[in-house]
Design a protein that fits this description.
It contains 31 helices and 17 strands. β5 and β6 form a beta hairpin. The longest helix is centred in the middle third of the chain and has 28 residues. It is elongated, with a radius of gyration of 35 Å. The chain is an alpha/beta fold. The strands form five sheets. Strands 9-10-11-8-12 form a five-stranded parallel sheet. Strands 3-2-1-7 form a four-stranded mixed sheet. A three-stranded antiparallel sheet has the order 4-6-5.
Length: 667
């Protein structure tokens, strides 16, 4: 045994075990013979070096450290120890308290290995303390900051003494009861640090590989970045206090996302679009606001197209005509809030559209003013990169004729002209032929009937269609129907704040909350109210709240040039023209102040039997004039109730005293 070399040999054995496990996790092998071959020595020599019987030459020792992934100050320190041993001086031994065989990992659940064994770290504050120190990668952390994250923003008066106790316990856990562990968790002025040489650290390795990739050619860099990304084992900082997670998780995830973007961009530059499409779809769904993943996904989809399809696109939609890529989507609304679950579902549907064997149709339905169109347009802008052949848009409230819409679509697509006065069937057939096999997004807004929509549907599964309507329309089998509800109170307040600005709403939080309730949390009503206040910057918000307090004037107040809540409700009410009994029941229900009611109560109100009344209630529910939160249970929103009251007079429904005979029967 070489005198003085025992400790250093033990260090080498620990480093080999760490490197071996890391290589196994990355899907590659690392054995003692392979290490011996790499550093240019025989296997028997390597065994002697690791056993401590032979001191390796300086160059071999350095090559071993490189093979084991040791870099920076730790490598220089170990080389100095080896040189001291070689010249016969008593070198400062590698102190066991430095815990050279520790492995720290925070890119996923916190994990610490000592000499290859997974350590159990109990206690939320102890895990938070260790993670906060590791995040600084060798830099000191002030004790006050540690207290903030350990006690989630509310440290006790005794936090200094409590922290010292947690540090002592952490040192014992990391280095064992026989050692103090002070070289692992080091006191520094008014704080603590974990030195970079205390052990290996996955975040440091991630940064090293990321930097290394910037100096490599594209193929090597792509492989290196993939190796860096493999270090991530799951969500970060999920096992520490919320205070630390809030302050650090976003930064960590941003580092990973940036590296993933670089790696996928390299995949595309190397012609591996097929490898990248799936990950790019996931990345776009996770980060819909990032521009680079959207652009890369569009490039990957285009690159993966068959050559014949690419050639057809270069020739354009209209054969010999000028190529046109329609971009007809209306502008997105910057004040849009909520509906995150529906947006995520629509994102997933769009990703499925390319692989489906049928046209993917998503139909959004809901009451007047609930925000169906805004949701469809927001979704369309999020997914449009998946449809490089263009996006078509038609508002059927303005142009109810499918003939007019199809004629415009074909003209937009530079299709060859059809003969004068074509039939609807001819136009629909021409449209389907023209967009066959195109990656096209079609948005059909404010549809009233399925007969309006069906001629506008492409015939091949490469397209996706978004439809909005008040009623649930009986479209093609396989259509995904999504009901859209009003906003929660929090989101309604958020919408008002976005439109009016923090400065204006911060001083009147009670008035903002009251205004959201007076608008029934209905996006259209909220937008009209905000627009009125924007027009009148000298008005306090409470002034509009006061004007809306009079229910008889509320609908009149909720209108502005070009927009009227009353007009929006009237369009739904007009659909009851074929059912005067349903219209009468709607008016009667408006006189009722009950929050919820049953068919039995409504039948007494209408003077009809229960079966007939239930049919009328279902008619009103389908027209989105009342709600049915549960089977047999119905509800009329406040703003619709006010609209119904306006239509009671002059209909022969009241008794001249503002109270119907029917209402008297159930009062």
């Amino acid at each position: 045994m070489h005198v003085g070399y025992e400790g250093l040999a033990a260090e080498l054995r620990g480093l080999f075990l760490i490197a071996e496990r890391r290589a196994r996790a990355e899907g590659r092998g690392l054995t003692k013979p392979s290490v011996a071959k790499r550093v240019g020595v025989s296997a028997s020599s390597l065994y002697a070096y690791l056993a401590g019987t032979t001191l390796p030459p300086s160059d071999v020792f350095d090559a071993l450290l490189i093979a084991f992934g040791v870099e920076g100050p730790r490598r220089a320190y170990l080389a100095t120890v080896r040189d001291h041993i070689a010249i016969g001086r008593r070198a400062e031994p590698v102190p066991a308290k430095v815990a050279p065989s520790l492995e720290f990992a925070i890119l996923g659940p916190l994990r610490v290995l000592r000499s290859g064994s997974l350590m159990r770290l109990s206690g939320l504050r102890r895990r938070t303390l260790l993670t906060a120190l590791l995040l600084e990668q060798g830099r000191p952390v002030e004790a006050g900051r540690l207290a903030e994250v350990m006690w989630d923003g509310c440290p006790p008066a005794s936090w200094r003494g409590d922290m010292q106790a947690h540090v002592s316990r952490l040192r014992r856990v990391l280095c064992g009861p026989a050692e103090s562990g002070q070289a692992v968790v080091v006191r520094s002025h008014d704080g603590y640090l974990i030195p970079a040489e205390a052990g290996s650290f996955d975040l440091t390795e991630f940064d090293r590989l990321s930097a290394l990739a910037s100096r490599q050619n594209p193929a090597e860099a792509c492989a290196t970045l993939r190796q860096a990304l493999a270090l991530w084992r799951g969500p970060v900082l999920a096992d520490v206090t919320p205070e630390l997670a809030r302050s650090a998780a976003h930064g960590l995830n941003e580092r990973r996302t940036s590296v993933l973007e670089r790696q996928l961009e390299l995949e595309l530059s190397l012609g591996r679009s097929g490898n990248a499409i799936g990950e790019l779809r996931d990345l776009v769904a996770e980060h819909p606001g990032r521009e680079l993943p959207r652009r890369l996904l569009a490039q990957a989809i285009e690159a993966s197209r068959p050559p014949a399809v690419k050639a057809g696109k270069r020739r354009g939609f209209g054969g010999g005509n000028t190529a046109v890529t329609p971009q007809e989507l209306p502008p997105d609304m910057p004040s849009f809030v909520g509906h995150e679950a529906q947006l995520a579902e629509l994102d997933a549907l769009a990703g499925h559209a390319e692989r489906a064997d049928y046209v993917v149709i998503a139909a959004l339905s809901g009451a007047a003013g609930v925000g169906k169109s805004a949701l469809a347009i927001r979704s369309a802008h999020r997914i449009k990169h998946l449809f490089p052949d263009g996006q078509l848009y038609a508002d059927l409230r303005e142009t109810g004729s499918a003939v007019v819409v199809l004629t415009r679509f074909l003209r937009t697509l530079a299709a060859a002209p059809v003969h004068p006065d074509p039939t609807l069937e001819e136009l629909a057939a021409r449209f389907r032929s023209h967009v066959a096999d195109k990656r096209l997004l079609v948005v059909i807004d404010n549809a009233r009937t399925a007969a309006q929509v069906n001629p506008l549907l492409p015939g091949t599964p490469t397209a996706m269609v978004l439809v909005t309507s008040r009623r649930v329309l009986p479209l093609m089998p396989g259509t995904v129907h999504k009901g859209i509800a009003t906003l929660s109170h929090r989101l309604a307040v958020d919408l008002l704040t976005r439109m009016l600005g923090d400065e204006r709403t911060r001083g009147e939080p009670v008035a903002v909350a009251m205004l959201a309730r007076q608008c029934g949390h209905l996006p259209l009503a909220l937008c009209i109210a905000a627009a009125r206040l924007i027009e009148r910057p000298h008005w306090p918000i409470a002034m509009l709240v006061g004007r809306l307090t009079d229910e008889r004037q509320r609908l009149s107040e909720l209108q502005i040039a070009g927009q009227s809540l009353r007009g929006s409700f009237a369009a739904s009410y007009a659909e009851l023209a074929d059912s005067p009994a349903a219209a009468r029941l709607f008016r009667l229900l408006g006189q009722w102040n009950r929050l919820e009611f049953t068919a039995v109560a409504a039948s007494a109100l209408a003077g009809l039997n229960e079966v007939a009344t239930e049919r009328l209630l279902e008619t009103l529910t389908s027209a989105q004039l009342i709600e049915s939160p549960a089977p047999g249970c119905y509800r009329m929103p406040d703003l619709l109730r006010l609209f119904a009251r306006e239509h009671i007079s002059g209909r022969g429904d009241d008794d001249g005293a503002g109270r119907t005979p029917e209402l008297s029967r159930v009062a």
